[in-house]
Design a protein that fits this description.
Layout lengths: L14 E4 L5 E6 L9 E8 L3 E7 L3 E8 L1 E6 L5 E5 L3 E4 L5 E5 L3 E9 L4 H7 L1 E2 L12 H10 L2 E5 L8
Antiparallel strand pairs: 1-2, 1-11, 2-3, 3-10, 4-9, 4-12, 5-8, 5-10, 6-7, 6-9
Helix pairs in contact: 1-2
């Protein structure tokens, strides 16, 4: 028997957060709703939006490209790979990775197991149901501090795709 009750949420129930660049992150399922088992996030992103080189210490992450394209780098060697609509990237915990959106727009699902990654996005992002504080911005230092508090490490900026 499950230790968490079933959960159903409609689109209007999802929390949407302002994030890096023009990105918004929608919390579809959080650890509280899944009994800590997983987190599902949806990123609506634009050309050039990127995640820095980083590593998760607590969760495995899966990136599912619903629509659009991204360049992804996974692992110590960081070989550049293209992820296109319908593609999936698996990034186990403790494996460095980064990505940059390489299409005009992208619609991406992120699944993290176990749950809890939404805490990082909630802590560093801004909930769009409330007015944005004048001083709010997601600086590299704020991003790194929040990610560290949630078990991750920022290793540096995303690779430069033009560097080959």
């Amino acid at each position: 028997m499950s230790d968490s009750p079933p959960h159903v949420a409609q689109a209007s129930d999802h929390q949407t957060l302002q994030w890096l660049g023009q990105t918004t992150v929608e919390v579809l399922l959080d650890a509280a709703a899944s009994g800590g088992r997983l987190t599902i996030l949806r990123g609506r992103q634009f050309a050039g939006d990127a995640a820095p080189w980083h590593v998760h210490g607590r969760e495995d992450e899966t990136m599912i490209m619903l629509d659009g394209e991204a360049l992804v780098w996974i692992g110590e060697s960081g070989q550049e790979q293209r992820l296109v609509s319908g593609g999936v990237a698996w990034m186990p915990r403790d494996v460095p990775h980064a990505y940059v959106i390489d299409s005009d727009t992208a619609d991406v699902l992120f699944v993290a197991t176990p749950g809890g990654l939404e805490g990082f996005f909630r802590h560093a992002g801004h909930d769009l149901t409330t007015p944005s504080p004048e001083s709010w911005s997601l600086t590299p230092d704020a991003l790194a501090a929040s990610f560290s508090e949630h078990g991750g490490t920022i290793l540096g900026p995303p690779p430069d795709p033009s560097a080959g």
